[in-house]
């Protein structure tokens, strides 16, 4: 939390929130590409499908070839490879790899073969249906995706599992945490980049009166405002809140709420101000302590590899003083390590 505590203390002085790319959001320019995976200019789906089949048939399986193909093609190109593999071998590539690969490497390879929406849906399903609900996964996905991305994952969830994602959330969560998640599932956050100063002042006042100014917290006000406003508007609200309280909104949120609800809403706060930094922090926490959280490492690196992984790498180096790749080398091994490193791209000084 230390990085974000420092960040929120400087909100009043820095009046320009970061967008997903880390660029100044007030400039209105087209967001450049900050992914690490780019289209293979010499792409040939049939050739890649044949190479994958050969790698699978090799005694012991040629994981290096599988990594070089899957991690160096875009998601759109991988979907073409899946189709070509089916047409030329009569086999399903996902099922075939599932049967020959192992452990964390298998999870990463199969994740790369899903569309982004399918992968989000898969991760949410397993977060809800596994042994114990993985609240951090729900927060990460629903708290950082756009309205369109959430709509697509809901469709993918229904296609894959035959029920609405909201149904599973209602079965496995409760209280204000459930209310927060269901609000995000509506995919109706106001994503307008034009900031309404009057609305920001009003919202900040409502938050102040629902928390600090009274005995007891009106949680519904925090949930409603944070789950309905877009990133730019939220950042303006945070700055307006600084004028009402010396504590800063992030600290107030920690004081007024607790548990899963606090974690969910804090995800929205952190992601609104600096999404790459939020993911950098999540990656760091996944490798802190005894044993890495391999699921989180795979999910973030795969899902952000065509979005903003370059920015995440930059934030990680700035926040922790060393490249993300260095920690991956220390905490992972074998083919899983290799595929994550390829997705991260070349290490820069």
Main sheet record: none
Low-confidence stretches: 10-17, 20-27
Class of the domain at 2-32 and 191-257, according to the CATH hierarchy? Mainly Alpha
* Tally of helical segments: 20
Oligomer: single chain
Rg, nearest Å: 21 Å
Q: What shape does the CA trace take?
A: elongated
Give the CATH superfamily of the domain at 2-32 and 191-257. Annexin
Helix-strand string: HHHHHHHHHHHHHHHHHHHH
CATH architectural type of the domain at 2-32 and 191-257: Orthogonal Bundle
Q: Proportion of β residues?
A: under 5%
Distance between the termini: 26 Å
- Give the class from helix and strand content and strand pairing: mainly alpha
Mean model confidence by pLDDT: 92
GO molecular function, one term: calcium ion binding
Biased composition (Basic and acidic residues): 14-26
Keywords: Annexin, Calcium, Calcium/phospholipid-binding, Repeat
Protein name: Annexin
Please give a structural write-up:
The chain is 67% helix and 0% strand. Helix 6 runs parallel beside helix 17 (294-304). The longest helix is centred in the last third of the chain and has 28 residues, at 259-286. The chain has 20 helices and no strands. The radius of gyration is 21 Å and the shape is elongated. Among the domains are: 2-32 and 191-257, Orthogonal Bundle (Annexin V, domain 1); 45-113, Annexin V, domain 1 (Orthogonal Bundle); 116-185, Annexin V, domain 1. The chain is mainly α.
């Amino acid at each position: 939390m230390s990085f974000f505590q420092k960040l929120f203390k400087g909100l009043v002085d820095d009046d320009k929130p970061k967008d997903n790319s880390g660029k100044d959001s007030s400039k209105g320019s087209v967001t450049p590409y900050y992914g690490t995976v780019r289209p293979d200019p010499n792409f040939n789906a049939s050739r890649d499908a044949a190479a994958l089949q050969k790698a699978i048939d090799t005694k012991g399986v040629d994981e290096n070839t599988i990594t070089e193909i899957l991690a160096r093609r875009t998601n759109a190109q991988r979907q073409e490879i899946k189709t070509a593999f089916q047409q030329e071998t009569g086999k399903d590539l996902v099922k075939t790899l599932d049967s020959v690969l192992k452990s964390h490497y298998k999870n990463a390879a199969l994740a790369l073969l899903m569309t982004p929406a399918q992968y989000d849906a898969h991760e949410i399903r397993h977060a809800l249906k596994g042994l114990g609900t993985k609240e951090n996964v729900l927060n990460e996905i629903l708290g950082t995706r756009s309205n369109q991305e959430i709509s697509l994952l809901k469709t993918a969830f229904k296609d894959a599992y035959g029920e609405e994602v909201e149904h599973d959330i209602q079965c496995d969560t409760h209280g204000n945490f459930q209310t927060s998640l269901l609000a995000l599932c509506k995919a109706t956050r106001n994503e307008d980049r034009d900031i309404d100063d009057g609305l920001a002042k009003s919202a900040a006042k409502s938050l102040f009166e629902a928390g600090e100014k009274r005995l007891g917290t009106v949680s519904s006000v925090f949930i409603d405002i944070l789950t309905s406003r877009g990133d730019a508007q939220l950042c303006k609200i945070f700055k307006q809140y600084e004028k009402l309280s010396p504590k800063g909104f992030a600290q107030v949120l920690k004081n007024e709420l607790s548990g899963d609800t606090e974690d969910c809403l804090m995800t929205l706060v952190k992601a609104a101000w600096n999404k790459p930094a939020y993911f950098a922090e999540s990656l760091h926490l996944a490798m802190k302590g005894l044993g890495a959280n391999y699921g989180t490492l795979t999910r973030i690196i795969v899902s952000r590899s065509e979005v903003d992984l370059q920015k995440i790498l930059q934030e990680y180096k700035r926040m922790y003083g060393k490249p993300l790749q260095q920690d991956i080398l220390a905490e992972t091994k074998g083919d899983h390590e290799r595929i994550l490193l390829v997705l991260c791209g070349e290490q820069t000084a």
